Amino acid sequence: MKRNLAYVLLLMLAAVASCSFTNKNFENDDKDKLLLDLITYVLEKGHYEPKALNDDFSVHVFEDFIDVIDPTKRYFLASDIAEFEKYKFQIDDEIKNTDITFFNIVYERLMQRMNDAKGIYKEVLETPFDYSENESISIKYDEEPFAANREELKERWRKQLKYATLGTYDSKISHMENKEIESTDEHDHTAHSPKEAEEQSRKSTETTLDEFFDFVGDLERKDWFVQYINTIVDEFDPHTFYFAPEEKEKFDTSMSGKFEGIGARLQKKPEGAKIVEIISGGPVWRDQRLEVGDEIIKVGQNGEEPINIVGMRLDDAIKLIKGAQGTVVDLTVRKVDGSLDVVSLTRDVVELEESYAKSANIIKGQEKFGIINLPKFYVDFNDYSERNAATDVAKEVERLKEEGMEGLILDLRDNGGGSLKTVVEMAGLFIKDGPIVQVRSKDKGKDVYDDKDERIQWDGPLVILVNELSASASEILAAAMQDYKRAIVIGSKQTFGKGTVQNVIPLNNMLRSNEHGDLGAIKITTQKFYRINGGSTQLEGVKSDIIVPDRYSYIDLGERDQSNPLGWDKITPADYKAWDGYIDYEKTIADSKKRMANSPQIKLIEENAKWLKAEQDETEISLNYDTYKEEKDKDKEQSDYFKKLTDYDSQLTFQSLGYEEQLFTKDSVLREKRNRWHKNLAKDVYVEEAVNVLEDLKMNNIKQGKLASVKN
């Protein structure tokens, strides 16, 4: 593997992070203005395609910020917007002068209008809704004008709340008419008359809004300012993003798949922090004294006086609960049965198992194939030698080989990307050597990242599964294997189309001294990557060798549908030689296309995708109950029709590998997760076709000889 890849990335990051910052002073004692100054400077010096701060830029920030904080237009009045208009062409000048007057005025007015809204929704919900009235609501809010006055605003709230309540009302009426209907939520569906159903539905909506405004009330001014900063940042491209300190920690956790804490996911409730999930393998899971539904009401540190967290912001409560590995936290808990208990736990490293690669054997008759599902290209940025996607996939490949795998499926569907270095190493598992991806930095030539390790982890048949949500690093790997003709790519018409590289820059590193504490970090687009054939995956993505429809086929999901994406271009190709391990590679693809064209399941998926698109395009919703019920019944009829999709049986058998079978004796949760995965795989027509393609490739595979051992 190319040893200097990490060195090149380190130099590039250092260059971006320095950006001659020593010749500029950041001495503003106002934290908000300091943040604005730092971030705009980094964007100007380090972004791959920096934007000109001009009147056009100002207009975009103005419109987008208003849309971000009031998307359904139920807070601001038209007079507010008219008042804000005088800043529409001045925001660029404010940014240059580290002036935040526009934000301050909008924020203060928003707080006033949100406070007004509490009174409005209470007024609206005092009056019963008349579901016999023939009226409708448009949910295409971007085309709606702002309300001219309080009366218009109240009417907007009335329609939106009637719409929000209609589903609950229908559920109660349905339960009243048919007691056998099972509820799928936590609401009490019991009602004895339409009047009672309507009253209870309004009350339920009021409770939901009370909880929402309680959550909003927890937000501080700094949280809204982060929204404003990110509105500015988003104008550069959809993947450049400012992380407040807490968000940076969450980002690191998502990329590494682990954190230090107790191993439970929490939800804010008026009575405390409710445990909604226990993470397998974590301290709570091992201790077994806490369960889902328990509510944490006090938090103490190793015998110290506990702090009451009832009413506290959830993020602040979590800060008290999380902590370094080996430290003790004392939790005062109200159990599900109402009793109080104090549970002391020793914090530990918690690994989010669902973030990591997992594999299974696929049995078809006398043949055995392997599948590896990779949710993301994870890595610990602080220590690459720790668990990462490349080494984990290498281990899974080796385990599958030991169990007799004759062909491999690498499932990258819904994989949003991750570490560039892990992609290069992972691609090297399947080829002898050669370039994997080309990267171009701002105002510089291209760098070619290649695999120089001649060992091959797997030289047998290989299929890669992708869809519209396969992005970034997933596209690099799929593109490289496609260009080498090493693998056949099966999936959507094209992948997501994210052909850019981001780096995370801690803002504290740019200051000689700082009195404001942690300033967070900015994830900034610094490079574009290109296939080894020279084409960018930006916007165009990777076009599958075998295109099959899925439920997203007609829904706008890709990079081209994001705000402010960078454009597509191409550069000179790298020097590479196609894989010579298959006979009749093109015939295998042609045969698969014929099978897919004649598959009833694929035709049903296509039909379902078109229906979902039609449903999404329906933006005028009736608020008349009879009409709503009629439309709902039609939708249910269609939905029931498409349930046949889940009845599909590929007749394939899926088995966990031996090492996991041993883990199941101690971890029933893991066993259940794997059983659920295998059950879904057995209904997956894409996996079934991938196996068919592997069979064809196995017949056409001219490579012989013993496969190499695990790459280090």
Word description of this protein:
- Residues 248-336 form the PDZ domain.
- By secondary structure, the chain is an alpha+beta fold.
- It folds into 3 domains: 51-178 and 192-235, no CATH class; 258-351, PDZ domain (Pdz3 Domain), CATH 2.30.42.10; 354-696, 2-enoyl-CoA Hydratase, Chain A, domain 1 (Alpha-Beta Complex), CATH 3.90.226.
- The chain contains 21 helices and 22 strands.
- The strands form 5 sheets. The chain has a 7-stranded mixed β-sheet, sandwiched between helices. Strands 4, 5, 6, 7, 8 and 9 form a 6-stranded antiparallel β-sheet that branches. Strands 2, 14, 15, 18 and 19 form a 5-stranded antiparallel β-sheet that branches.
- Residues 1-23 and 704-710 have low confidence and may be disordered.
Notable characteristics:
about 700 residues; alpha+beta; Pdz3 Domain; 2-enoyl-CoA Hydratase, Chain A, domain 1; disordered N terminus; disordered C terminus
State the low-pLDDT regions, or none: 1-23, 704-710
- Which structural class best describes the helix and strand composition? alpha+beta
- Structurally, the number of domains stands at 3
What is the total tally of β strands? 22
Please give the alpha-carbon distance between the first and last residues. 9 Å
What is the correct CATH architecture of the largest domain?
Answer: Alpha-Beta Complex
Biggest β-sheet strands, sense, barrel: 7 strands, mixed
Rg from Cα: 28 Å
The shape is globular
Mean pLDDT: 88
Strand order of the largest sheet: 20-17-16-13-12-11-22
- CATH topology name of the largest domain: 2-enoyl-CoA Hydratase, Chain A, domain 1
* CATH class assignment of the largest domain: Alpha Beta
Strand content: 15-25%
Going by CATH, the homologous superfamily of the largest domain would be: 2-enoyl-CoA Hydratase, Chain A, domain 1
Helical percent range? 40-55%
| H/I helix tally | 21
